[in-house]
């Protein structure tokens, strides 16, 4: 018997159904314990907040059409440090031009 044939027979003899049921049971317990708990709901709300804000911006401000403004809104929502870095870069550029 070749190595491949032995491997196939060994894999065929494994208790795959048992392992599948065990994995499913552990996943169900974990999801029930962590994902759907009152303690963990705030992190999901926090994660979906930028999506809600950007969707509201798209619905309310339809006339905008400016890709630059929309990009700045997205950056401002998802990364508050974006504007701080951008404004400090402007200061550095302006200062270096004045010298």
Question: Concise description?
Answer:
The chain has 99 residues and is mainly α. It has helices at residues 3-12, 16-35, 41-60, 67-78, 81-98. It has five helices and no strands.
Notes on the structure:
The protein has 99 residues and is an all-alpha fold. The chain is built from five helices and no strands. The protein is elongated and about 70 Å long.
Q: Could you give the order of the helices and strands?
A: HHHHH
Q: Please give the largest β-sheet.
A: none
The level of helicity is: over 70%
Give the helix/strand class: mainly alpha
Using only C-alpha atoms, the radius of gyration works out to 27 Å
Tell me the distance between the termini: 81 Å
Count of alpha and pi helical runs: 5
- How many strand elements? 0
Taken from the alpha-carbon principal axes, the silhouette is: elongated
Q: Can you tell me the residue ranges where pLDDT is under 50 for at least 5 consecutive residues?
A: 91-99
Highlighted features:
mainly alpha, single chain, about 80% helix
Set down the secondary structure blueprint.
Layout: H1 3-12, H2 16-35, H3 41-60, H4 67-78, H5 81-98
């Amino acid at each position: 018997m070749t190595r491949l044939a032995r491997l196939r027979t060994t894999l065929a003899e494994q208790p795959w159904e048992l392992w599948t049921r065990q994995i499913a049971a552990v996943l169900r317990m974990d999801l029930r314990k962590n994902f759907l708990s009152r303690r963990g709901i705030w992190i999901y709300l926090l994660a979906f907040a930028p999506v809600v804000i950007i969707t509201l911006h798209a619905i309310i401000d339809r006339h905008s059409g400016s890709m630059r403004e929309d990009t700045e809104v997205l950056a401002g929502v998802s990364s508050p440090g974006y504007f701080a870095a951008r404004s400090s870069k402007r200061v550095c550029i302006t200062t270096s031009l004045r010298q």
